[in-house]
Design goal:
With about 170 residues, this protein is α+β, with helices and mostly antiparallel strands. The protein has helices at about 10-15, 60-70, 100-105, 150-165, and strands at about 20, 25-30, 45, 50-55, 60, 80, 95-100, 120, 130-135, 140-145. The strands form four sheets. The protein has a three-stranded antiparallel β-sheet. It is elongated and about 70 Å long.
């Protein structure tokens, strides 16, 4: 299993510096630091849409720090998935530990999507079955089939997606 996130500092170190509100998802400093006062909101929003916080000169994703503070365990080598797709919503009810494959199945459709639906392409040269369903998982392609209508393709894709990803499946 591969996780691009780095290991977090130990729980004791993080817990001395930060407090976490499980309802709002906000991290707050417990101690005065060089340029921040205790009680102020910790972290900053990056262009990616994720909040980050700097702990002892290590840049850490706020949702991973939140996971550590609640569970007392670093999620590494797993990822922490935002269930509702809102990268800045770090409320604990919106977070779940996931493998990289599970997390990727919960992504929204890509910006280069042409059919309007994940894992479905429209092939105009195929007159009888132009809607093709292929789900990619763990460097494997799962060809589901070609279908005459988008509705049939969606139904087949959802069935296979649920089989492959379970509760992490997001159409």
């Amino acid at each position: 299993m591969y996780c691009k996130a780095k290991k977090l500092p130990p729980f004791d170190v993080v817990n001395e510096l930060l407090t976490y509100n499980i309802i709002t998802g906000v991290l707050t400093w417990k101690v005065n630091k060089s340029n921040v006062k205790a009680g102020t909101k910790a972290g900053y929003l990056k262009k990616t849409g994720y909040f980050y916080v700097s702990i002892n000169k290590q840049e850490c994703a706020a949702h991973r720090v939140a996971w550590l503070l609640v569970t007392k365990k670093d999620p590494w080598p797993y990822e922490v998935d935002h269930i509702n797709h809102n990268k800045s919503d770090n409320a604990f009810k919106n977070l779940r530990k996931a493998t990289i494959q599970q997390n990727s199945s919960n992504r929204l459709k890509g910006i280069n999507n042409t059919s309007g639906h994940k894992s479905i392409t429209y092939q105009s040269h195929q007159t009888s079955n132009p809607w093709v369903v292929c789900i990619h998982q763990q460097n494997r392609s799962h060809y589901v089939g070609s279908f005459p209508t988008l509705e049939m393709a969606l139904k087949a894709r959802d069935k296979k997606g649920k089989e492959l990803y379970g509760k992490f499946y997001n159409p």
